[in-house]
Design a protein that fits this description.
480 residues, alpha+beta, three-stranded antiparallel beta sheet, two-stranded parallel ribbon, 15 strands, disordered C terminus
């Protein structure tokens, strides 16, 4: 294994914060609300990436795998599928444009300035925000499409494909948004896989001068959280619930944002001795279309993200897919001799992609049978019935009378609430009860002070109350 290198993270939280600073107009949102890209980014919170953890992953990367202790982990399509919910099957994310200025003028109506743009063909993220954040056209105007395309290009550069130069995005992505009704027709998830692996390979390449990880560091962090159980316990202690809905990245970002204020612990290499190969069994899938996408995880093909191309094979992550290990993996597919491009010349993308696209178009024939995840027809069956109080975990609660005895998980029938008149407290106030909440009746008017209100609650719900840890919320603390 190559020696460890000091890694700089260009795909860090500054990109996510920049995305949250964009105040998305409702007219633009109406075009994107049903797209997979918007569902992915709309759930994200700006969190601080654990640089020590991501640097550890970079330095443990070798031959396409993360070598952690005596284990090997592979960042595969199933990880991208569950974490982001982006399509992994569809049209390849390739470039076919050489005149970026002409493309921007046609699809955005403006030519981006060359000032502060390091590489030719790139568009500044800050310029996109300044020019297109405020929408000045009616919702039924064709010009609204320019604002939608600008926001999508901004999203790709911030979260999906962040990289170098910082705060800039290749203008080649713009032609993919020519038809806004076909946003989900492209394999954004497979492109992200190629983008991540090529970035990791460049960091570890001893002949490469770059030590900067130009990819989504947040995805690498939550990939580690999914596969390293001890790391999750170190981050959140014992009082947390793992996200179960796709995209998992949204739930993880909220967890990290919630606990980062009170938890300053950082990654310890000693916490990486236990590996979970199949952590996604808990995930609830309600959309049958996800299964058609998931089948591609059992294939062998080249995933493409502009000039970043990565050969994906299910054989590298067979144990993570629940398949028997492959002793003699097949060699990579031959794509022939790639056309060379001299410095300063425009690459002939059609000839460059010819072999890769041919294998991509034949990707379905390379897929093996996988054990597909189950479809949940009605997620409400996992919700507790009305009027039932679900007990909290034994390690996080005590019974209300103060006895230091652990409370076992149980269900207790709640009495029918009696609403008493009183204008002071709305009936929407809640009483914490561990993992669930307890509805509080309207108190009489004489119970207005904090002390009397607490006394009334304890008297009325004495046998059903559970005393959790004190909350920072001033209203909830009234009942503790």
């Amino acid at each position: 294994m190559a020696a460890d290198r000091d890694v700089s993270l260009s795909g860090g939280t500054d990109h996510m914060e920049l995305l949250k600073d964009w105040r998305l107009d409702d007219r633009v949102k109406s075009f994107l609300c049903n797209s997979r890209i918007y569902k992915y980014i709309s759930e994200l919170d700006a969190v601080r990436v654990d640089t020590k953890l991501v640097s550890f992953l970079c330095n443990s990367y070798e031959d396409g795998h993360f070598h952690i202790g005596n284990h090997r982990l592979y960042l595969g399509l199933q990880d991208i599928f569950y974490l982001t919910g982006l399509p992994i099957d569809g049209k390849p994310v390739i470039s076919n444009s050489q005149d970026i200025d002409g493309l921007c003028e046609r699809l955005l109506g403006r030519i981006p300035p060359k000032k502060n743009v390091v590489k030719s063909g790139y568009v500044g993220l800050k310029w996109l925000k300044e020019e297109f954040e405020e929408v000045n056209v009616p919702a039924d105007s064709p010009d609204i499409h320019r604002y939608v395309r600008a926001y999508l290009l901004f999203v790709l550069g911030c979260v999906v494909f962040p990289g170098l130069p910082r705060h800039q995005v290749p203008g080649d992505y713009l032609h993919l948004f020519d038809d806004l009704s076909a946003i989900d027709d492209f394999a954004w998830g497979s492109a992200m896989l190629a983008h991540l692996h090529v970035a990791l390979k460049r960091v570890r390449d001893k002949n490469s001068k770059g030590k900067n990880l130009s990819a989504s560091c947040f995805i690498l962090q939550i990939f580690a959280l999914e596969h390293l159980p001890k790391l999750v316990t170190s981050y959140f202690g014992g009082d947390f619930e793992l996200p179960k809905a796709i995209p998992l990245a949204g739930g993880w970002s909220k967890l990290l944002a919630r606990y980062s204020r009170n938890n300053n612990k950082k990654f310890n290499m000693a916490e990486a001795d236990e590996i979970s190969l199949t952590p996604y069994n808990r995930v609830l899938i309600s959309d049958p279309n996800f299964l058609d996408q998931f089948k591609l995880c059992g294939g062998r093909f080249y995933s493409i993200c502009l000039d970043r191309i990565w050969f994906y094979s299910y054989e590298d992550c067979a144990d993570q897919l629940g398949l028997p290990p492959v002793d003699n993996p097949l060699p990579k597919m031959d794509v022939g001799t790639l056309p060379k491009c001299r410095k300063g010349e425009q690459r002939d993308w059609e000839k460059y992609y010819e072999g890769y696209v041919a294998h991509w178009n034949d990707r379905q024939s390379t897929c093996v049978d996988l054990s597909l995840p189950a479809i949940v027809e009605d997620e409400m069956e996992f919700m507790p019935s009305p009027g039932i109080f679900t007990g909290v975990s034994p390690s996080s609660a005590l019974v209300a009378d103060g006895a230091d005895q652990p409370l076992q998980e149980h269900t207790t029938e709640m009495p029918s609430p009696v609403i008493e008149e009183g204008p002071s407290l709305p009936s929407s106030h809640i009483l914490p009860g561990g993992d669930s909440v307890l509805a509080v009746d309207q108190p009489p008017q004489k119970y207005q002070t904090k002390r009397r209100l607490r006394k009334w609650c304890r008297k009325k719900y004495y046998t059903f109350m559970v005393k959790p840890k004190r909350s920072r919320h001033p209203v909830l603390n009234l009942f503790l």
